[in-house]
Amino acid sequence: MKTKSLLMTGFLAALFFTACESSSEVKEADVPQAVKTAFSAKYPTAQVTKWKTEKEDGKMIYEAEFKDGDKEKEVHIAPDGSSVTDED
Fold it and tell me: Any bridge partners for residue 26, and if so which?
């Protein structure tokens, strides 16, 4: 019975966190220049495969999915380009 309770709690927590964050794909033309500039400064040779907007902790951020050499990565960038956070 304890195992069922733990599994249900984990499932509900995952559902809650998924519902709290929203994400939508955006065209590169709709990404602010400050975001693209911050990305290019940190990853000058990378190729973006997808841009998204997300809400994290109530704040909108831009997410770039990209290839850097043979590695696929993600990075989160504030709309004004001031904060760049790598995702593993």
Answer: 51
**Residue 45 within a domain:** yes
Q: Are the C-beta atoms of 25 and 50 separated by less than 8 Å?
A: yes
Can you tell me the distance from the alpha carbon of 80 to that of 88, in angstroms, rounded to the nearest whole number? 22
Q: Is residue 14 part of a domain?
A: no
Amino acid (one-letter) located at 20: C
Residue 36 sits in a domain whose CATH number is 3.10.450.360
Residue 16 in domain: no
- pLDDT one-digit tens code per residue, 56-65: 888 999 999 9
Task: Cite the beta strand spans of the chain per DSSP E.
Answer: 23-26, 47-56, 59-68, 71-77, 84-87
- The letter for the amino acid at 74 is E
